[in-house]
Description:
4-stranded mixed β-sheet, 15% helix, 31% strand, globular
Amino acid sequence: xxxxxxxxxxxxxxxxxxxxxxxxxxxxxxxxxxxxxxxxxxxxxxxxxxxxxxxxxxxxxxxxxxxxxxxxxxxxxxxxxxxxxxxxxxxxxxxxxxxxxxxxxxxxxxxxxxxxxxxxxxxxxxxxxxxxxxxx
Length: 136
């Protein structure tokens, strides 16, 4: 019985060690800021493309401060990135589906390794509440 308890404790340690932030979370390097109504927007997957229908060249997810850090950037970088966005969290909101496709989003970024922090400011209406607001 004692042997099973030891194995159970070891299993629980492994399971809980995987919870929370990953120890390898990237907090430096090329990044962009994602905002809506001038406030940081978390849990948004930012995908960079070279063409409207091209594959993903790099991906990052915005943190609570709105910053999305990219681990692996293509070299050389294209002269311009086309951007697609996807909501990953359940924060009570959803992105307009047009932002999921680089061809429809109309979002563009300059090369990230040569520039200052760039901001993706989503326009009014790009984010919708999942539950209707109550009128007073």
